[in-house]
Each structure stands twice: as structure tokens, then as C-alpha cells.
Description:
The chain is mostly helical. The chain has 2 domains: 9-95, no CATH class; 110-218, no CATH class. It contains 13 helices and no strands. The protein is elongated, with a radius of gyration of 20 Å. The relative contact order is 0.10.
Amino acid sequence: MARLWQDDYWLLLLQLYLKAPQGVKPLYSRALIDVALRTHLKPQYIYRKLSRLRRIDTPLLQELWNRYAEKPARLKAVVKKLQMMDGFGNAEEFYDGVEATREWERDFKPVSAEEAARGKDAVTPVKLIAILDLYYQLVPATMVPSTPEVAALAKLLRMSAQEVADIMTVYQACDPFLSEDEGRKSPLYEPCRNIWRRFGNDDPEKLAALAAQLKDYWK
């Protein structure tokens, strides 16, 4: 079940706000997404709350700012204590026994147990979303590792160009205009098909806008 807002979460947001460069972080920056996952609150909600720190418009925010803004070590210690008390920790411990049903949360988690075992190199839905966006910009003949756009996206996602090209082959199996059989053999076929169902019949500009925002996550 998703968590509700707690005033203690302002400490997490204040730490995020003060992180260099100081200020409101991009919606899909990794640091903001980390706070969203920790609290089970949507990134958009965290972003709106974070924006409040530009105004310091309540006595509570003013008190927190006065107490911690110039004392990052103290803030770090308090946040660490909060995380320990509230069950925060690494991703596996945090999600143990928690039914995370929100689609946005699943988008940032590995697509399978096999992928989770790869650690930081795991394929996640957000990676598949970024690759699908590029898929729509290319023709099959250019969906190869040597294509500059494929290589550039692979570098951003911290994947090999071959991995990105292989996933595009899987998308060719999902594409009703191609229906290539080769991609159906991949263990990523079902995850790719799920992403295709979400975005394949939608306005490609919406996908492009989302993919552009998601790039902040890997920067």
C-alpha cells in the first residue's frame, strides 16, 4: 500500500534541495526518483513538494531551514536515523514484503528476477521506454550497434550498443507492421510487449516527451 505524506519527509526533501547544485531538481533526476521510491509517493508529488522549499512559506519549513540549511552534517545524521527507523535501506530490503502496485514504481525496478541479479546493469521499464522512443525514429536497417543514435543511447543508459540493438529486434517482434519472429525468443519479449502495449498506439509525441525527461535519470 502506498505511503501517505509525513512531515518527517521534509528532511529528505531538504537534503535533496541542498544537494549541489542547490535548488529544485529535475522531475526524473535519479536523486528525486530515489526519494519518491523511498516514500512511495509519485515523483510529480515529490517535485511539487520540493518546489515549496523555494518559498519557505510555513513555520515548519522555516524551522527546518534555520536548523539544518547551514549544517549539512547534522541533516545527514538526522536523515540517516529517520531511514533506519522507518525501514528505509537498500532497494531489496525496502521492498521486501511490500506490494508495490503503482506502475511508476515498477518502471524503475528490474523487469525480472534474472535482470535484478545483474544489479546496476539490470534492464528496467524506463530503459525500455527510452529504447522504444529511439525505435520510432529509426528504420530496421539502422537498428544496429554501429548506428550513432544507438551507440549514443547505449552510452546514456550504461548499456552496450549491442544490447540496445537486440532490444530493438525484440520490438520488431512486437510491431504489428513487422512481426519479426526472432525477437520472440528473447527473455525480454514480454517486458517489451508490455511497454509496446502502453505506448505503441499512443501519440508518439507523448512518448518522446517522456523519454526526453527520463534522460535526466541517467545523467
